Amino acid sequence: MSVKTKVVIIGGGFGGIAAAKALRKTDCQITLIDKRNHHLFQPLLYQVATAALSPGDIAVPIRAIFSRNKNIETILGEVTEVDKDAGNVILSDGEAIPFDYLILAPGARYNYFGNDQWKKFAPGLKTLNNALSIRERILVSLEEADKIRDTQKRKPYLTYAVIGGGPTGVETAGAIAEIAKRNMMRDFRNISPDETDVILIEAADRILNGYSEKLSGKAKKDLEKMGVTVLLNSPVKDIREDGVDIGERYIATPNIVWAAGVEASPLIKTLECETDRMGRARVNPDLSVPGSENIFVIGDAAFAEDKDGQPLPALAPVALQQGKYLAKLIRNRMKGKETPAFSYTDKGSMATIGRARAVADIRGFTFSGLFAWLLWSLIHIFFLIGFRNRFRVFAEWVWHYITFKRGVRLITTEADGEKGG
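RESULT FIELD:
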């Protein structure tokens, strides 16, 4: 009996799942390792954080995705080291998993630029736990504000600061504005929409830097129409439990969301390869690590360049295409064939701002408003894994659009820290 080629994939995000799917009908033994048991559709995390969707709408167990594929084993665990010489990855419990080919797709985490103490007060939006924590913080603040009769004393509880003007920051600020200024206000007797402040803080001179100036300006105007204050050229100096210091102004609020820079997974450091300032591995044109032709890095953890020498963006479509490319490369190598360098096909980018508001740049054609929002909605539903998830999200969005109501508004953490039953 022939020995199967062992392919180890680290990370159950877009790139890792795409690679495993493309290899499932091959004569490979695939081991997919992730420290969480689910694949998460990160672009919609902010909708869980702002009570529009439930966690189950945007996540699916990894085992369920590959339940019919006998050549794919899934392991719930954290890889702490890559032993290139021995051809093993080492789990946190000390177990060594051998590989013939290794695909690293461990993703990224938020970069607090040396101020890790800010994490406690300004959570990022990378996991379901982050989203649920932010959601509860918003809901608890509304409840607290409703109890306070003095308008000045309740002001901090009705102020929301989002740090970072990229797509996640813009989408989060827009969604919070919808909640704070429209959706939930009818349920609170003592506070009004006019009392709420949603503030988007960006260190650069415009939001959505990856988009054209026209779309960036359109997004800013749309946010302002929704009641969001956009502060440009405002680098954060300090974050405390009770607010954000941006130098000339202190914003008093316990409601802070971090959506600024990211850095690659610390696992990349164990490869002992060249990295960029974000900790991403500088990979060869075939996405392999220099000096290790059987070890590859993709997605947010890889620094790869396009045909013009520009770095590829940290977007889901990039990771998806890279995962599929590596599956093809491995299949070709097993047959003794060569594979040309990876080439990314840019199909466009888009960001939603709020109800019937979005911006999109599709191969040089720019759109905004209702059409861009419909396009954004259809594409995001298409990329969700599983018909059930797509149907539920579509139904939730239609319901929300018609009724202006948010779906999940439960506070499950008791005052003493226990979970409600």
